[in-house]
Design brief:
Layout (H helix, E strand, L loop, with lengths): L2 E6 L11 H16 L5 E5 L11 H11 L3 E8 L11 E6 L6 H17 L3 E7 L2 H5 L3 E9 L6 H4 L2 H19 L6 H8 L6 H16 L15 H17 L2
Parallel strand pairs: 1-2, 1-3, 3-6, 4-5
Antiparallel strand pairs: 4-6
């Protein structure tokens, strides 16, 4: 089964003028990089990956719905008064009445990883009437990874290792929840025996190649990936996997 995922980030600022998007982006990138090491999953972001444009919420949810995502995880960092204070903690949200639904189960699977990664107070799993949660058609959660205007939490948010670890642990928790298999050299060899791909396999291979270009793992730009035959797709997809594994 192909497990698809939508990533989203938006941006307020800290009292010192730091953009929320910068914190969110580091978590989201670490999340996508970790999930790239699992079979049968494709990730797609619905914010502006450059951070230059604050994409409207409707555009994000419409995009995820049209893309056919199976899961939507929205990465955020909280704010209270926009002035420094001593409030603290992380929380995960589902839509109103969804605490016991499949989205609630997703939140239960993911939230412990959020708490562990940030090492902050556990504010629990909550319900809210957020657009992101209300308008997405798939299982969806929204993560608040600490307060940007907290004199306590800001130290965690300014630590790139904490943010990278948050993305990694959340990805691992997600992979466990949906039953993904981690890529190993053994199953890479098995994939290399395949000569022809189905439509899902082609889509996954193309996504991996494009991701490799974005992550500077390829010198070639692969601008005509849609014209590649199955053997070319398999070859470049395997190259992407091997380079990701070597960088771990």
């Amino acid at each position: 089964m192909l497990a698809t995922l939508a990533l989203e980030s938006s941006g307020k600022r800290t009292p010192d003028g730091e953009y929320e998007w910068d914190f969110n982006n580091k978590v989201a990138k670490a999340f996508a990089n970790e999930l790239a090491l699992y079979q049968g999953v494709t990730t797609k972001r619905f914010d502006d990956p450059t951070g230059k444009r604050d994409v409207p919420l409707k555009e994000r949810t419409d995009g995820a719905n049209e893309w056919g995502a199976d899961y939507y995880i929205s990465f955020h960092h909280n704010a209270n008064t926009a002035s420094w204070g001593n409030w603290t903690g992380v929380e995960t949200y589902v839509y109103l009445g969804n605490r016991t639904t499949e989205s609630g189960k997703l939140a239960e699977a993911i939230h412990p990883a959020v708490v562990e990664a940030y090492g902050l107070r556990d504010r629990g799993i909550k319900e809210a009437d957020f657009h992101i949660l209300r308008e997405t058609k798939m299982q969806s959660i929204l993560i608040e990874g600490g307060f940007m205007d907290s004199t306590i939490d800001i130290h965690k948010l300014r630590d790139d290792q904490v943010l990278a670890n948050a993305g990694k642990l959340i990805a691992q928790a997600f992979a466990k929840y949906v039953g993904l298999t981690r890529i190993t050299f053994e199953n890479v060899k098995e994939v290399s025996k395949v000569e022809f791909l189905n439509s899902t396999g082609r889509k996954m291979a193309k996504e991996m190649i494009r991701r490799g270009v974005e992550e500077n793992l390829f010198i070639k730009k692969h601008e005509n990936v849609d014209e590649y035959n199955d053997r070319e797709l398999i070859s470049y997809a395997l190259a992407y996997v091997n380079r990701k594994l070597k960088n771990k």
